[in-house]
Amino acid sequence: MSESQVAPTSRARKAERYATTLALIVTLGPLFYGFEGMVLNGAIGAVGSEFQLGSLAKGVAGAAGIIGGLIGSVIAGRLSDYIGRRGVLLLVGPLLMFEAIFGALCPYLGGYPFLLFCRIVGGMGFGAATTVAPGYVAEISPERIRGRLISFRQLAIILGLLFAAVANLVMTKIAGNSSAEVFLGIKAWQCMFLCLIVPALVYMILMPLIPESPRYLVSKGKIQEAAQVLHRVSAEEDVQAQVKSIQKSLGETHQVMGMFAVLRSKWRGLVFVGMALAAFQQLTGTNGIFFYSNTLFEAVGIPESMAFQQTLILTVFKIVGVTAGIVLVDKVGRKRMLMYGGTLIFVSLAVVATVFTVAPKGPNGPDISNNPILGFLAVAALCCFLLGFTSSWGPIFSVMMGEMFPNQIRGSAMSMASGADFLVNFVVVLLFPYVVNWSPAVAYWIFFAFGVLAVIFAKKYLHETTGKSLEEMGE
């Protein structure tokens, strides 16, 4: 009988509580990711006016963080094999703080080009955090609750979005608009950036409190230190046996493998599966579905001027979805959650695509403003999409990325999978506005097709990892 099928002992419950605390600390990096994205969303109009930017330049400002995230993700996983998971996560805080402070001061320090630099630096920070955090949490989590602890990453991103939306609303209410002055010549959009100091500072204060990953310590021959950490985070009684199992999983040399070595190894197919999983997460429309959200809400009587109310409605569905994912992931299983959630995703996308297909044409594309039935259908589909994504492909991609790779290749494999995630995200954000301006219906039918392919892919190529130890992944 596996550990997940028996009632936990008092020692196991103590280990689970400690591991949960560590997971909550580590997910402050992904929280900053969501916070930063929403801050820019609220500030981008004022930034465009401040620096007299065209639509392309504003798009570049938006994409700069993703570019930084791509750089950070590619470097971080492999770097964590050299300086440790904890070592990389400790480097993240200063990068986040740099963007928070100097992003706000960019009008005095080089203008628009310096703002791009700040966003890239901050992106490197949250790219590293969102790459290494799932692997770290997987390596310190008891098997019984590993899935739910890694899933905290998605909840942290959502809460970051909500907190930033509140901060943006407060700043806008105080100043009147995001371009107005708040105090001492500092404008509201600059204060929005300064709000990033709060999550960055909390992250920097708490991160030194976490221990190093026991799997990393074993790979470096620090057996006694690894045993001490395992004694606190593991539900197993025989810690020395677990250390030996980790040593065996690392092979005779006890060394981890670089990217090129991984691509030449027997596990290259597994890495490609992880990269494809990352690509499908983005190609199911998680960014594109919100492009027309204002239009959809206006059709049911919630205008763009009530943007905060829209955000609250969407956030409620996101939290319900991710909470369901956290509760069910260790019970239902990763693969089945991806398939069930993926089915809800592509059905929802089909409804949105159908609405835009049958809607009458207006001067700015499909017009559903005078058809409340189509409007309610589209908004309901949007909310169902959120439930499907945030309960499955959103959090479970992180779970799979953190635990599906063997100990020998986890750092390098996480870099490649997370790099694929940021790269496809960049491509979708870059191309989607052009496709949707040409034909919204075609754009959402494309997402629908990818949603169907994602479910087929999950069924055919993914192996269930629920109930298995990390040392079993190599098998």
UniProtKB/TrEMBL annotation:
The chain crosses the membrane at residues 21-44, 56-76, 88-110, 116-138, 150-170, 182-206, 269-292, 312-330, 337-356, 376-401, 413-436, 442-458. Residues 22-466 form the Major facilitator superfamily (MFS) profile domain. Belongs to the major facilitator superfamily. Sugar transporter (TC 2.A.1.1) family. Keywords: Membrane, Sugar transport, Transmembrane, Transmembrane helix, Transport. It is found in: Cell membrane. One of its GO terms (cellular component) is plasma membrane. It holds the Pfam family Sugar_tr. It is a multi-pass membrane protein. The keyword DNA repair does not apply. GO terms for molecular function: carbohydrate:proton symporter activity. This is Putative sugar transporter. It comes from the Bacteria.
